[in-house]
Amino acid sequence: MRKKNNLTAKVQKTRVLSSPLRAFGAFAVIFFLSLPCHAQSRDSENTVPGKHRGAVTALMHKGDEILSVGEDGFLEIWDIRSAAAKERFQISPYRISAMSLHPLKNEMCVIENDDMGLYRISAWDFEKQEKLFSLRFSDTVSYINYSAGGSFIIAGRSGRAGLTLLDAASGDTLQSPETLAGTVGFAATGRAERNMLVYLSAGGFDAEGGLISYRDLVSDDETNRFEAPGNVSNVIVCGNNRYLAGIDADGLVVFDAASGAVLGRDSSIGRAALLCPAGDEFYCLTQGELYRFAVDRSGRLSVRERTKLSIGAASITSMAANGYIAFGTANGEVLLPERNGHIITMAHNDQLRIIEIDVSRSSIAFLTENKTLGFLPLDYSHITENEEIITEAQYDAYSRLTPFNASAAGESNAADDAAQFILWQDSSAGVYPVIVSAGRAPLPLSEMTFRPPLRSVSSIDGKILFLDSAGNISVYTHNGKEKTRPLSFSSVGAIYAAFIDSDNFILCRSAISGNTPFLMVSIVTGETVPLPWPSQAGIQVYRGGSGAIYVAAVNQDAAGIQTSIIRLNTAAPAQSAPLVKFQGEDTQFSLTESAGLLAATLGGEGAAIYSGENIRPFERTAGLPVQLKSGDQYFVLLDEEGNICWFDHDGKLLAIFKMYADGWKLSRFQN
User: Fold this and answer.
1) What tens digit of pLDDT does each residue of 450-499 get?
2) Shortest CA distance to 470 belongs to which of 484, 485, 446, 489?
3) CA distances from 84 to 3, 241, 346, 640 (A)
């Protein structure tokens, strides 16, 4: 794996103290005190990563390591000798349903699935943490395997083209069997990669059940075909590639790869059993027992070993064997069973995941997955052994943060120096926003009216803008001197709204019923100025520190759906300039500007800096980017792993902040 040099880490022990509820009418907020604690050193190179968040979906061995993928989209590498997690890296924003390892290289391919009809096949160099390619499919992809020499990838699909062959390096589609349709349960090639065996569990030509087909890949001819048991799942090959085994409605079944004939059955094996090959033998896990089966030269099935496990089989989701048996579980762990049935859980150190951040002039506020609110200096160099990290818990009802700029233009306000933020909710009803700052009691905004939940919140010069789920916009002045509500506004199809200066905001909306996707509204006069742009919807607006106004729009043309970032000219919209385009729909991306440089997470694959024709990708961290904020001297990013990361203006990683249940760690990188 790629390693960073010159790394130092600090671990902060934090204490969180609770205090009584304070109610404000229908609104209740919990106020907590926090005390500073001091850092302790810890060697970050020895820090054990966390486990999967969600079920492990596939396991494979690679020497003394186990590779696992899961529902969280992460690849994990586990060291067998130390029985501990070694590396954790996100390779997909979606669930990973299957994995195959290259037979000769440190490469892998996976099937990604968003559970809403999107399927992708991606290939990775997992040692370098580099993606080789990614391909999207319009039909279900249910099977994947490398050819014997690793030259190409075999992909089983549910459409007419039941089998697709892909170049393992580029992802280019190779000549694939044109007369082979059905549900692929297993496929493998010979060592020369000229011939291929395919087992179709259903839909194979005129066969009533399953089908075994032998193919000549050079001529694309079928050289032989045998009827076989149908609807067999979890198919593996054993006995020097002479036999296939799997699970059907009647239990474990073993059948001849050269004839399709059933050679043996075990009806005591349940439908939910898991199988994995182990040389000439294979393992089977069912109902809390682990079997080791063998098939002799006559095709006779026999039990070589049977072990009662100390853990229920229902929690195990995947299995692999290569001298060592390994199990993946529904809660993301990897287990190593011993011969006596005792289970060793491989060590891991789960982070307390940070799920939301925002940035003020001097501070970063963050929310963790257990709804602890915390504050950091914006400048990571100020996070030292003697620097206090303030945390307050629990803000259970809240999910979003927005910086509150309390000072009017040209004024100085001590409250602003305290780094205030608006804490709000975008997914549930009945919760008023609050203004929070480090070490101070939260201030409820219970005087506002809205139809919950909120869609967006913006603040400038002591003013706060709220857009609710019904499309109602309310603007309040809340600068410590006055609390007024100068404007209420409503628009059909409202999606997002934000200030562009102290007197105006831009509303993003669906371009329906004659609407323009963007509308500029004066909070002083109520005057509206339509801002036309050829798109179906405006989805985001952002004012950079340079004064530039950026908007995002979704459009559909003959090429499909496209998401664009545009530098908006409010005086002459026709002169607005599109900056970044993504072929697809992405309504959840983040964008920001630092030192006049635009950066965005558009497309969900990573963050990049866009400067004219030049695109500079950010260095990858353990997780894909979730939020991107401006820190003046650098960019601040929150990733899917829950890390707060600092990057310079070339996209190079400067520092990473992690939270744990018992403290925190800051890792600094010198490039």
Assistant:
1) 788 899 999 999 999 999 988 999 998 886 555 566 788 988 899 999 99
2) 489
3) 18, 33, 5, 22
Any residues with CB less than 8 A from the CB of 525 and at least 6 apart, and which? none
In whole angstroms, what separates CA 386 from the centre of its chain?
Answer: 34
Widest Cα–Cα separation across the chain: 91
What string of H, E and C letters represents the secondary structure of 480-516?
CCCEEEEEEEECCCEEEEEEEECCEEEEEEECCCCCC
Residue 153 has pLDDT above 70, yes or no: yes
How far apart CA 597 and CA 604 sit, in angstroms, is 20
Average pLDDT in the chain: 86
Q: Which helix (H) or strand (E) holds 639?
A: strand 635-639
Q: What is the pLDDT of residues 238-277, one digit of tens each?
A: 888 899 999 999 999 999 999 999 999 999 999 999 999 9
Reduced to 3 states (helix: H, G, I; strand: E, B; else coil), residue 257 is coil
Beta bridge partners of 537: 510, 554
H helix count then E strand count, the chain: 1, 62
Q: What is the pLDDT of residue 7?
A: 33
Model confidence pLDDT, tens digit, residues 407-424? 765 555 554 555 899 999
Cα gap 226→587, rounded to integer Å:
50
pTM: 0.88
Query: Which stretches of 296-441 are DSSP H helices?
Result: 414-417
Residue 118 half-sphere exposure toward CB, CA atoms < 13 A: 15
Residue 631 has pLDDT above 60, yes or no: yes
CB-based contact 318:59 (threshold 8 Å): yes
Mean pLDDT of 95-113: 97
Using alpha carbons, list the distances in angstroms from residue 608 to 176, 378, 600.
36, 21, 6
How many CA atoms does the CB half-sphere of 403 hold within 13 Å? 23
If one compares 65 and 514, the residue with the highest pLDDT of the two is 65
CA separation for the pair 610, 564 (Å, rounded): 13
DSSP secondary structure letter of residue 347? B
Show the tokens assigned to 354: 């940070």
- 282 with 236: CB under 8 angstroms? yes
Q: Is the dihedral of CA 611, 616, 618, 620 positive or negative?
A: positive
Q: Which of 21-25, 81-85, 439-443 has the highest mean pLDDT?
A: 81-85
The 3-state secondary structure of 144-178 reads: EEECCCCCEEEEEECCCCCEEEEECCCCCECCCCC
Kindly report, residue by residue over 581-629, the tens digit of the pLDDT: 998 888 889 999 999 999 999 988 899 999 888 899 999 999 999 999 9
At residue 634, the 3 state secondary structure works out as coil
- φ and ψ of 313, to 5 deg: -65, -20
Residues 6 or more apart whose CB falls under 8 angstroms from that of 121 comprise 109, 110, 111, 112, 134, 135, 137, 141, 144, 153, 155, 166, 171
- Is residue 343 exposed (0-12), middle (13-18) or buried (19+ Cβ within 10 Å)? middle
User: Look-up: residue for tokens 């596939």?
Assistant: 58
Question: What tokens appear for 128 in the block?
Answer: 């370098």
User: What is the rounded distance in angstroms from the CA atom of residue 327 to the CA atom of residue 61?
Assistant: 11
Q: Are 118 and 148 in contact (CB under 8 A)?
A: no
